[in-house]
Amino acid sequence: MDNFQTVLRFFMNQKATIGYSFMALLTIGGERVFSMVSFQCPCNLNQNFAYGITFLLGPAAVLLFLGLFFSTRLWRLYTGCCLNPMKLCPRGNCFGCLRVLMSIFTGACVAPIMWLCVALLNGTFYECAVSGLNNNVVVDLFCKNKTMKCREELAHVPCDRSKLSNDERLDLLLMFRAQSQILGWSLIIVSALVGLLGTCCTNCRSKVSYLQLTFWKRYMEKEKERFDSFSVEYANKLAERNLQSFFENKNAAPFPFPNHKAWEEISAYYTFSQSEQYYSTLQRYVEKTDREFHPEKRPVLDSDYGIEMS
User: Fold this and answer.
1) Which of 238, 244, 223 lies closest to 286 in space, CA to CA?
2) What is the pLDDT of residues 140-198, one digit of tens each?
3) Which of 196, 216, 233, 303 is the most buried (most CB within 10 A)?
4) CA–CA distance from 258 to each of 191, 234, 263 (Å)?
5) Which parts of the chain span the membrane according to its record (predicted)?
């Protein structure tokens, strides 16, 4: 039993690494499916570049949008900001807001960068895209020391319909593949370097020590886990109380519930302050001694239409 708990604790501590590894495997698998099933280079001078670049950048853009769409931090920061712009920059902390937005964006960029790296290392999409370039400088670079037919048949190189000799076509394919893989490895190195420098800069400017920062991260994880489970439990109790009151046709028993202002306070963006020593907006709200309760007279959210009510 102790060994099982040790293994479980190890996987829980490494869940970020495991998650990124799983994402990388999905990216590799998705790229292979795209390359083998749906991707067919048209081998046309007017279509190759647009077709190849669409398959190279299109899935990356979709993954970026999905990463932003499923980011709870983004929606926590953005929800309600049109009616109350100060939610984006509480206490005038615009720099902290920009830093959070940058963190959200960089987190959403992980999957697109993985896709670009895998796609460039494979080289299929890049071959189709660059073979459709009609720039004289680029064509002269590709067809240097080759016959004039190279310029005419460059767009047909990714396909078997090229009239070039096998050796000449193979040389061009190898050159395209090498360029694509160089770009892929360059993107990997740049991304790793930017990630390392960003982490170093963040830790260097941290207001807390390494152990306190580790405790802070653990606390936020546990608070989120307990909040989710407690919300489900509390929602079940509230639903059961309301349904029981409705079907039994009797007055509902008193049921304590946070007011709208309390929800707003714990949903706000929070930055650590050495003078307060709190680790979340929830803790800051709970520690307050001057909390006031004002029950809402009408619903704050119309769930049927999803619009705010004044």
Assistant:
1) 223
2) 778 777 767 787 788 888 887 777 788 888 888 899 999 999 999 999 999 999 989 98
3) 216
4) 44, 12, 7
5) 18-37, 49-70, 100-121, 182-201
Q: What is the pLDDT of residue 20?
A: 62
H/E segment holding residue 308: strand 307-308
CA angle 271, 272, 278 (to 5 degrees): 115
Measured CA to CA, the distance from residue 158 to residue 175 in angstroms comes to 12
DSSP 250: S
Q: Which two tokens stand for residue 243?
A: 């349904």
Is residue 80 within 8 A of residue 196, CB to CB? The reply is: no
- Asked whether 261 and 272 are in contact (CB, 8 A), the reply is no
Mean pLDDT rounded to a whole number for the chain: 80
Which residue type, as a one-letter code, is found at position 310? S
Residue type, 94: C
| 116 closest CA partner among 43, 173, 34 | 34
Distance CA 281, CA 219 (A): 12
Strand partners, 302: 307
pTM over 0.85: no
Q: Is 184 helix (H, G, I), strand (E, B) or coil?
A: helix
Domain boundaries along the sequence of the chain:
1-205, 210-287
Task: State how far the Cα of 125 lies from the Cα of 122, in Å rounded to an integer.
Answer: 8
Between helices 110-122 and 166-204, what is the axis angle to 10°? 160
- Name the E strands within the chain: 301-302, 307-308
- Write the pLDDT tens digit of every residue in 6-45: 544 544 555 566 666 667 777 777 777 766 777 888 888 8
Residue 57 tokens read as 């950048």
Q: What is the pLDDT of residue 91?
A: 62
Strand, coil or helix: 251: coil
For the ranges 29-43, 98-112, 171-185, 252-266, the maximum mean pLDDT occurs at 171-185
